[in-house]
Amino acid sequence: MCAAAMIPTKCAISHSPEWRRQINSSAREPDAVAAAVRAIVKAQKALRTDPSLAREVGKRKFPADAAELITNVVARDIEFLQSRDY
């Protein structure tokens, strides 16, 4: 099963040299991985507190109509943004 698509298939991503390089790199840089995890946890906490923050990010990265959709999706799925504290 390809984790990227969650469907049974041969996943080209997991077998690519770039993917293997990134995995090996992350194993050698545990501090960078830990910092990335902390950043994700912080972003999830902020979104749980104020889902409208997704709109602000969406406005900078996507067309206006998509930014509104992102806000609705985050608000709908807020209960799934449960991460452990690191």
Molecular structure report:
With 86 residues, the chain is mostly helical. It has helices at 17-28, 30-49, 53-61, 64-76. Helix 3 (53-61) runs antiparallel to helix 4. The longest helix is centred in the middle third of the chain and has 20 residues, at 30-49.
Spell out the blueprint of helices and strands.
Blueprint: H1 17-28, H2 30-49, H3 53-61, H4 64-76
Helix pairs in contact: 3-4
User: How many alpha or pi helices?
Assistant: 4
Would you count the extended β strands for me?
Answer: 0
Please indicate the percent range of residues in DSSP E strands (runs of 2 or more). under 5%
Overall mean pLDDT score?
Answer: 76
> From the alpha-carbon coordinates, what is the Rg to the nearest angstrom?
16 Å
Percentage of residues assigned to helices: 55-70%
Structural class: mainly alpha
**Judging from the principal axes of the Cα atoms, what is the shape?**
extended
Distance N to C terminus: 30 Å
Please summarize what this structure is.
The chain has 86 residues and is mainly alpha-helical.
What key phrases describe this protein's structure?
extended; mainly alpha; disordered N terminus; 86 residues
